[in-house]
Amino acid sequence: MRAYSELPPDYVERGEFNLENSRLLMAMNLIGLVLLVGAGWLFAVLFTRLRPHTGEFILIFRSETPWQVLSTLLTFLVLLVLMIVLHEGLHGLAFWLFTRSRPQFTFKGWYASASAPGWYFTLPAYAIIGLLPLFGISLLGLALAPLLPESWIVPTWALLTMNAAGAIGDVMIVGWLFTLPRNALVQDFHTRTVAYVPQSARFGAER
User: Fold this and answer.
1) Which Pfam family is one of this chain's hits (predicted)?
2) Whole-model pTM?
């Protein structure tokens, strides 16, 4: 598992995974909605088992006054921002661990990304970079669940759920890596991941 600052001379471009592709983006949004429901259910079940003394896990939003409505919305807004910061921060940490150079962060509205455009990564290294936020945040949240104050259970559940749904792009990119030759290298450009392979594997001869 390595990162290279230069592309080997016999490597050529094989293809790319472009998150700006409109069809791909639409598919990701639809799959993300399904994942949001599935992740919410899974984390609810896990929290119930980790905190059996709290009884059945029930999520009820009671908004009896305008202030309570605003408070609920603000809580989830803060959680969303926190999730984005943690998620991209872990991507950045993984990039740094492999390159020992400062990653680049981009924030455009609700979209954020970490990247290392000047580096080329082996497939195992890039898979770790891609999946670290999903597994790191999920496992940390579940590990802390038995220790959290009662009032933190639902916010933590919401953060883990949003993080899992927001990782749909990472999961799809890692899935795409399995279609590449084992000796491929990939380069990250925020919304584009470009794959390079040796000239002999240009047309898929080497797996």
Assistant:
1) DUF3267
2) 0.84
- How many Å apart are CA 14 and CA 62, to the nearest integer? 53
Q: Lowest mean pLDDT: which of 11-15, 70-74, 143-147, 150-154?
A: 70-74
Q: What angle do CA 129, 81, 19 make, to 5 degrees?
A: 50
Instruction: Yes or no: say if 35 and 168 are a contact pair by the CB < 8 Å rule.
Output: yes
* SS3 state at 34: helix
Closest to 87 measured CA to CA, from 8, 42, 141: 141
Q: pLDDT by residue (tens digit) across 20-59?
A: 777 887 888 888 899 999 999 999 889 888 887 654 444 4
> Cβ atoms within 10 A of the Cβ of 120, count?
24
